[in-house]
Every structure is written in C-alpha cells, then in structure tokens.
C-alpha cells in the first residue's frame, strides 16, 4: 500500500537557491491537518524551510497517518505505509528545495510525534533532530524495525503530566529509549494535558533555533 501525501511549504523571506537552509518537516496529530502545524511553526519561518505534511487518511474533520486498534497499538499496514511514504517525500523534497542535508528536523505532535520518533530511529544520518510532543514509540518499531539513528541525533521530547490519552510514563520511556542511542536528549515534562502549552511553544522554538545554529558553527569550524 502506498499513499500520495499532500503538503504545504513555507520558505524564508530571503530564500536563495544558492544557499542551504535547515528544514522542519511538521507532522500533525490525529484529526488535525497541515494547517495546524503551519500555524504552530510560523515563528520559525524566517530561519527554516517549513514543510507541513497532511496524513493520508481521513479522520473526522481532519486527517491521520494511521489508524489504531487500541492506544499504543497502530494498525501495522497503515503505519508502515505512512513511514515509507514520509521517508520518500523527505528524500524528494530535499532534492527539490535548498535544504541543508545536515540540518533536517522533524517536529510532530501526538501521531506526528510517533512518526517523528520512528523516522529518526530508522533514517540514520538523514535526520539531525526531532521535536516529539506527546507521543510514544510503538513496540513493534523497537522490536522489528531496523533501528539506526544518527549517533549525533538531537532529540527534544515533551509530555504533559495530565495527558488523558498518553500517560506521562510514555514520555519518560521515550526519553530513556533515545538515551540509549544518543547523548543529545532534552526531556521536558510539563504541567498540562494533551496539548502544546504556551511555555512549551516557546521552548521547542528556542531549542530548534539553538540546535540548528550549533550545527552551522560546527561545520564552519571544520572548514577552517
């Protein structure tokens, strides 16, 4: 099974095809859409190429990347198809736009966080960092997928202590799992539910800017 993924792109106002820009692939939660993620990422548009991707499945008034059998248990066929489709889309768009291959980020909320963490675990050096807000890593991803994350992967994981869908323990488990693969893990538990709070909104933006800037400085140093 394969999907044709709908997406929208926002380019920095000074976009120049001769330059290379960091990119954020933004993935929404179940029942939402790419417009929600564009609004969430809007303050970063001056620094990053933003590519918001719509899930291929209709879910209520919005969309989803996969359906679930129960909480924590995605329908495997649909999940696998979206993972493959998103990987291919990232490859295709990285060739189409002036994207810095050393600064590719994925940011997602809920289902988008689940996809972000999965993609980071399997795409190796193709991904520099992720922002995963209020998600989990399916057990079959841990047990059956070929996991090969970038050893320098930067990870920002957040989870609300009053999340009614995914308990806080899942956020802690996410952070612990990534700690096994990289030293660059920022875990932010916060007071709130299954939502992006104003404080979290500011925190993940600052984290992305800082991480992308540090990569630039490291590359400049290597070129001396």
UniProtKB/TrEMBL annotation:
PANTHER family according to UniProt: LYSOPHOSPHOLIPASE-LIKE PROTEIN 1, LYSOPHOSPHOLIPASE-RELATED
GO molecular function: hydrolase activity
Keywords: Hydrolase
Name of the featured protein: Esterase
Ranges for domain Phospholipase/carboxylesterase/thioesterase: 19-210
Keyword Hydrolase on entry: yes
Source species: Paenibacillus xylanivorans
Gene3D superfamilies from the UniProt entry: alpha/beta hydrolase
Family: Belongs to the AB hydrolase superfamily. AB hydrolase 2 family.
Keyword Hydrolase in record: yes
